[in-house]
Amino acid sequence: MPAPIRLRELIRTIRTARTQAEEREMIQKECAAIRSSFREEDNTYRCRNVAKLLYMHMLGYPAHFGQLECLKLIASQKFTDKRIGYLGAMLLLDERQDVHLLMTNCIKNDLNHSTQYVQGLALCTLGCMGSSEMCRDLAGEVEKLLKTSNSYLRKKAALCAVHVIRKVPELMEMFLPATKNLLSEKNHGVLHTSVVLLTEMCERSPDMLAHFRKLVPQLVRILKNLIMSGYSPEHDVSGISDPFLQVRILRLLRILGKSDDDSSEAMNDILAQVATNTETSKNVGNAILYETVLTIMDIKSESGLRVLAINILGRFLLNNDKNIRYVALTSLLKTVQTDHNAVQRHRSTIVDCLKDLDVSIKRRAMELSFALVNGNNIRGMMKELLYFLDSCDPEFKADCASGVFLAAEKYAPSKRWHIDTIMRVLTTAGSYVRDDSVPNLIQLITNSVEMHAYTVQRLYKALLDDISQQPLVQVASWCIGEYGDLLVSGQCEEEEPIQVTEDEVLDVLEGLLVSNLSTPVTRGYSLTAIMKLSTRFSSVNRIKKVVSIYGSSIDVELQQRAVEYNALFKKYDHMRPALLERMPIMEKTSSNGPTEIVQTNGETEPSIVEPKHPPPVTQPANQANDLLDLLGGNDVVPVIQTTMPSKPASAGGELLDLLGDLSLSGGPPPAPAPSVPTSQPSFLLDGLSSQPLFNDIAAAAIPPMIAYNKNGLKIDFTFERANPNPNIAVITIHASNSTDADMTEFVFQAAVPKTFQLQLLSPSSNVVPALNQGTVTQVIRVLNPQKQQLRMRIKLTYTLKGSPVQDLSEVNNFPPQSWQ
C-alpha cells in the first residue's frame, strides 16, 4: 500500500477546493484511505493519519472513528506518537464516552514517567477531559507531582488539581498540604497556577476560605514585589510586570477580604499603592485598575479608598476606548447605592455619555443617570434626560419615559413642575409610555385642585398642535370633559388665559372622534368628554346630536356608550347633572398599594383602595371568572385547586382533556342550565364574603361514603345540606394515609357535569400524615338545581417518598339523599 500523503499536502489540497461539494469529496476520499489504513493496523503511519483526522475534525467533519487509534498512540513509547495521541484524546473524547476510561491506566503510567514532557502531556489531558472516576483514581499522582521540585510539572499539576476539585470537591483536602508551599515559589508560572488553585478552593469551601485568610500577608507581599520590581523582560507586558499574575492575586484578595475586617485591613495599603502607581496609558494598566476597583468595592475597605476607586472609574469615562467606558458605567451602576455622593461628583461626565454614539453606552448612562436623581438635582437632571428623550432612538424612549415618570413622582419640587414634566414626556414620546401613565396623570391632575385651570389650558393647546400622541390626547380629552368650563371662562392665573368658545372646544373633540389617528380608546374618551360637557356648556342640543350619531357606530364600545348617553338624555335627564358632576379627589394611600378599577361616566378610572383582610376563601375572583367561562362551552366543569402555593394549578384546558369524557348517562347532553337563578345569590362568589362560611348549614342524615381507596390513600365523603338553598350539597372530604411516609404536595381536584356547579374551597393542609395519624379536610359545595344524579371525576396529585403520584377516578355511587 502506498504511503499516505502528509498533513501539509492534505491542507494544501483542501484549500484548492473551489466549492463546498469539492471539499467534501476530498475529505471523504481521504477518510476512506485513513479507515483502510486503520483496518490494516498500519503502525508506521498511524500518527500521520490521526493528525490528518484531527485537522478534518477542526474543519467540522466527523472523526469519531479515530478514537481508539488515539488510545493506541497514547500507549506507544514514542513521544511523537504520545503527543498526537493525547491531543486527539482531548479533542475527540469526553467523559460522556465510555472509551475514555480505557486511558486511565496509560495516564497513570505516564504520570510516573521519567520524562517531564510525557508527564506534562498526561497532566494536560487529565486536566482537560478527565471524568470524576478518572480524577478519583489519579488524584494521588497529581498530588505527588504538586510537591515535586520541578516547576514545569508543578504548574501543570496545579491546574490539573483545579479540574480534579471541580469534578470531585471532596478530594479538596488532599491538596491542602501541597498548597502551603506553592506561594513561596519564585517561578511566576507556578505562582499563577497556585493562585488559581487557591481561588477555586476558597470559592468552593467556606472552611478553606477561613483557612487561607492567613495567607493574605504573603499575597500582599507578592503583589508588592510585582509593583516595585524593575524591568523584567521575561514578565514585562507594556511596561507592567506580569499583569496576569497581578489580576489573579487581586481576585483572590477580593474573595479573602469579603466580609472580613482583619483581612480587609491588611490589604488596604497595597490596594491604594496599586491604584496610584499603575500606568493608565495602556490597556494592561486599565485591566489591573479595574480589578483593583472591584476588589476595593467588595471588601470592607476604608471610605477614602472607595472614593479613590470611584475616581478611577470616573477617569475611565473619559477614555477613548468604548469598552472601558462601558465597564466604568456598569461598575458605577453597581456602586451608586452604597457610595452615592462619590458617584455624584462625576454626574456631568455620566450625562455626557448620553450623547455617545454607542447604544450600549447610552443605555448604561441612562440607567445610571436615573439612579443619580435626587431631590437636590431633579430639575437639572430632568432637563438633560428630557433632552435625551427628544433625540434618542425609539428603543430608548419607553424606558426613558418610565424613568422620568418614576423620578418625577418621587422627587417633584412642585405639582406644576410635575404636571409640566409628564406633559412634556407625553408630547415627546406619548406612543412609548406605559399603559398606566394615563390614569396616573389623571389622578395627579385631579388631586391638584389649584392647577385645574392651568392644566386644561395647557392640554387644550397641546391638542391644537398635535393629536398623534394618543396618551396625551386621552388625558386632554378627560381634562376638557372635567374642567371645560374653566377653559372657556379663562380663569387661568398661572399663565395668560386664552379665549376659547364652547363651539371651538366641541369642534376639537368632534375632530378627535373622526380622526384616523384616534384609537378606539381615544374615541371613547372623547365621546365621554363631550357628554360631560352637556352639564358644563350651554350647547346641549349640539351635544345631543353628536351622541345620537354614534348610536349606530360600528365600534361596539362607542355604540354602547352613545346608546347609554342617549338614554340618559331621554329617560333620566333629571339625574344627568348628578351623574356627570366632577370627579372627587382621589385619595392615594400608597404608591404601590392595590388599585381598584371602577367604572365612572363610561370610562375606566383607577382609585386606590385600602388593603382588606383576606376572606375565608382564598380562591381569587379571576379564577371564579375562569370557571364561569368554562361553564358556558364544555360538558364538564372543572374546579382547579389554587390555594396551595407549593403546587401550581393546572391549566383549564389540561383538566378538560383529562376530565372531558364525563357526561350524564343516556340520551343527548342536557341543555345548559342558567349559571345562577336570579332569585338566588351568586353561588360561585358567595364564599368570598366576610361572613362565616357554615352558619347556614344544618346536619342532615346523609350516610358517608368512601370515594377512593388505593395505594394507601383513602378519601371519605361526608355530606351536609345548606338550609337557605336545598339545592346546594356541602361535601367534606377526609383524606387519610396508611403508608409509612407522609404524602406531601397533596392536591385534590374535581369536575362535575355541566348541569351542576361546583365550588372547591381551600384544604386544611397539603401534607397527609403517615400511618393514619391525621387527615386533610376540604369542603366542596355542589349546586344541583335540576335534582339529577350526582357524578364526579376526581384527580389526586401528591408526592410519596420523593416520587410524584397522579391518579384519576370517577365517583358514581353518591347516596340518593345527597342529590334528591
TrEMBL record:
Q: Name one GO biological process term.
A: vesicle-mediated transport
Please report the record's description of how this protein sits within the membrane.
Answer: Peripheral membrane protein
UniProt keyword annotation of Lyase present: no
Q: Where is the major localization of this protein?
A: membrane
* Domain (GAE): residue spans on this chain: 700-815
Q: Which domain of life is it from?
A: Eukaryota
Instruction: Enumerate the UniProt keywords alphabetically.
Output: Cytoplasmic vesicle, Golgi apparatus, Membrane, Protein transport, Transport
InterPro entries named among the record's database cross-references: Adaptor_Complx_Large_Subunit, AP1_complex_gsu, ARM-like, ARM-type_fold, Clathrin/coatomer_adapt-like_N, Clathrin_a/b/g-adaptin_app_Ig, Clathrin_app_Ig-like_sf, GAE_dom
Q: Where in the cell is it found?
A: Cytoplasmic vesicle membrane; Endomembrane system; Golgi apparatus
Q: Name one GO cellular component term.
A: AP-1 adaptor complex
Provide an example Pfam family for this protein. Answer: Alpha_adaptinC2
Family the entry assigns: Belongs to the adaptor complexes large subunit family.
Q: What is the recorded name of this protein?
A: AP-1 complex subunit gamma
The organism encoding this protein is: Labrus bergylta (ballan wrasse)
Q: What is the lineage of its organism?
A: Eukaryota, Metazoa, Chordata, Craniata, Vertebrata
